[in-house]
């Protein structure tokens, strides 16, 4: 990828002498309104978006998303949360450091109340270890429930419950 160099051909002439750091902090300035789209992206969008995308890829790597066909990691949610929390242009809200998840962001909470999301399946929420424990416990339970003595006991319990329900129903008549 070719690196972008500031030159008279690809910048706004009247702001050429201004330092890049000074311009980077003001995306709403007159300079931002008059520069080319390429320079706007290079000076205002990419310095914020590229670290967020790198962090997203690192998080996806930690969640082993590149190894599985299906996973619970949502890249758009991560980017939204990361950009909201690390927004250098909005310093009005001091509560940003205290926000721990996406649902604590006010405008997202309002949007989710209007348009709720489907719940994420447990298979995507659980780690591999948790899923293995669930499967093993279910399998052990199945092996125990299939034993003849246990089947007989369960059948007796079912009949006992039916009998008790009939007694209660007759008492209230």
TrEMBL record:
| InterPro entries associated with the record | IQ_motif_EF-hand-BS, IQCK
Which PROSITE patterns does this entry report, sorted A to Z?
A: IQ
According to the record, the signal peptide region is none
- The name this protein goes by in its record: IQ domain-containing protein isoform 1
The organism encoding this protein is Schistosoma japonicum
């Amino acid at each position: 990828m070719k690196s972008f160099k500031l030159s008279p051909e690809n910048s706004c002439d009247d702001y050429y002498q201004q330092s890049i750091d000074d311009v980077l902090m003001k995306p709403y300035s007159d300079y931002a309104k008059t520069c080319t789209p390429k320079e706007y992206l290079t000076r205002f969008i990419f310095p914020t978006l590229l670290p967020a995308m790198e962090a997203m890829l690192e998080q996806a790597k930690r969640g082993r998303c590149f190894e599985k066909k299906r996973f619970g990691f949502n890249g758009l949610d991560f980017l939204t949360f990361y950009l909201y929390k690390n927004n250098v242009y909005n310093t009005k809200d001091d509560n940003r450091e205290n926000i721990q998840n996406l649902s604590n962001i006010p405008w997202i909470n309002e949007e989710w109340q209007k348009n709720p999301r489907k719940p994420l399946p447990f298979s995507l929420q659980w780690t591999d270890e948790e899923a293995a424990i669930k499967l093993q416990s279910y399998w052990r339970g199945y092996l125990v429930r299939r034993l003849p003595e246990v089947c007989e006991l369960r059948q007796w319990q079912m009949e006992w419950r039916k009998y008790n329900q009939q007694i209660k129903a007759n008492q209230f008549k």
